[in-house]
C-alpha cells in the first residue's frame, strides 16, 4: 500500500514539475499541446449565447483562444452600405463628363437613411466606391405624380453613371414606359427602377440621375421622389 502511495506522490510531483504536457510531441509549447486530431463524443447545446464564449483557432500558432460572440457579429458589419431618399428640393445637375442627356439628381449626404456620410460627396453628389468588388445597386425615381401626358420624346428615363478617373460612363439605364389609348390620349408612366449587380473599382464615383432629361418639365421636379441604395456583395 505504501508503495502505491509513494508512486502516486511521485507522479503528482512530476506533473507539478513539468507544467506542460504534450501528446504526440516531445516539446509541448502550451499547458496541453496536442499534435494530432481531437474527438469529442458529447457536446451539449445551448439555446442562447449570453454567458458563453466561442473557441477560435489561430491558424499561425495553432493556439486555441476564447472569443466573445459579439466580435463575430461586429466583424460582419458591411461598411459599404448606403441608402438615401430625396422627396423635395430636387434639381438636376449637369457636368462636362456626363453623356448627352444625363443629368444627376442632387442627392446630399444629409438625406441618407443608412450608412456613413463619409461614403458620399456633396461636392458632386456621388457615392464613392470604398473597395474593388461587385455591388448591389438600386435606384428608383418617380417624376411628378408618376403619370404624365406623353413626354416620350428623347426617351426620358433614369440612369446610373460611373465616374472613373474623370471619364463618365452610363453603366445602366431604364426608359419611362408609355401607354397609348387610340384616338384618346398618350400617357407616360414616369416612374422607373433599376436593381442589379455591377463591378466597380476603389474610388469610382456613382451618380444617380435622369436620361433624356432635356425633354422634361423642370417644374414637375418639385413633386418628384428619388431614392437609391448600394452595398458591396462580393470581391
Descriptive notes:
With 235 residues, the chain is mainly beta. It has 2 domains: 2-75, no CATH class; 82-234, Jelly Rolls (Sandwich), CATH 2.60.120. It is 10% helix and 45% strand. The protein contains 2 helices and 17 strands. It has helices at 2-17, 69-75; strands spanning 21-23, 32-34, 54-57, 64-67, 82-86, 92-93, 103-105, 112-115, 120-121, 126-128, 133-149, 157-164, 167-175, 177-181, 185-200, 205-211, 225-234. The strands form 4 sheets. Strands 6, 7, 9, 10, 12, 13 and 16 form a 7-stranded antiparallel sheet that branches. Strands 8-5-17-11-15-14 form a 6-stranded antiparallel sheet, with no helix packed on it. The model has no long low-confidence stretch (mean pLDDT 83).
Task: Provide key terms for this protein.
235 residues; mainly beta; Jelly Rolls; 2 domains; seven-stranded antiparallel sheet; 2 helices; 45% strand
Which strand-content bin applies to the residues?
35-45%
Q: The biggest beta sheet, please?
A: 7 strands, antiparallel
How does the overall form come out from the CA principal axes? elongated
Specify the structural class.
mainly beta
Series of secondary-structure elements, N-terminal to C-terminal: HEEEEHEEEEEEEEEEEEE
- Give the CATH architecture of the largest domain: Sandwich
Give Rg in angstroms. Answer: 31 Å
Q: What is the CATH level 1 assignment of the largest domain?
A: Mainly Beta
* Separation of the first and last Cα atoms: 69 Å
Number of helices: 2
Average predicted confidence as pLDDT: 83
> What share of the residues lie within helices?
under 10%
Uncertain segments: none
Q: Which fold name fills CATH's third level, the topology of the largest domain?
A: Jelly Rolls
Looking at how many chains there are and whether they match, the oligomeric state comes to: single chain
Amino acid at each position: 500500500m505504501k508503495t502505491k502511495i509513494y508512486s502516486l506522490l511521485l507522479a503528482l510531483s512530476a506533473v507539478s514539475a513539468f507544467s506542460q504536457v504534450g501528446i504526440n510531441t516531445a516539446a509541448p509549447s502550451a499547458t496541453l499541446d496536442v499534435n494530432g486530431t481531437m474527438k469529442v463524443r458529447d457536446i451539449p447545446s445551448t439555446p442562447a449565447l449570453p454567458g458563453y464564449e466561442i473557441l477560435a483557432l489561430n491558424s499561425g500558432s495553432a493556439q486555441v483562444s476564447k472569443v466573445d460572440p459579439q466580435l463575430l457579429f461586429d466583424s460582419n458589419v458591411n461598411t459599404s452600405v448606403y441608402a438615401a431618399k430625396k422627396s423635395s428640393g430636387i434639381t438636376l445637375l449637369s457636368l462636362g463628363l456626363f453623356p448627352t442627356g444625363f443629368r444627376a439628381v442632387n442627392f446630399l449626404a444629409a438625406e441618407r437613411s443608412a450608412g456613413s456620410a463619409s461614403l458620399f460627396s456633396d461636392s458632386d453628389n456621388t457615392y464613392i466606391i470604398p473597395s474593388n468588388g461587385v455591388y448591389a445597386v438600386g435606384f428608383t425615381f418617380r417624376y411628378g405624380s408618376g403619370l404624365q401626358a406623353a413626354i416620350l420624346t428623347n426617351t426620358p428615363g433614369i440612369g446610373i453613371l460611373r465616374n472613373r478617373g474623370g471619364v463618365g460612363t452610363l453603366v445602366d439605364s431604364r426608359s419611362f414606359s408609355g401607354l397609348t389609348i387610340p384616338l384618346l390620349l398618350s400617357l407616360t408612366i414616369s416612374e422607373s427602377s433599376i436593381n442589379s449587380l455591377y463591378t466597380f473599382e476603389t474610388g469610382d464615383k456613382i451618380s444617380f440621375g435622369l436620361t433624356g432629361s432635356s425633354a422634361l418639365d423642370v417644374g414637375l421636379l418639385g413633386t418628384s421622389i428619388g431614392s437609391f441604395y448600394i452595398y458591396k456583395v462580393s470581391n
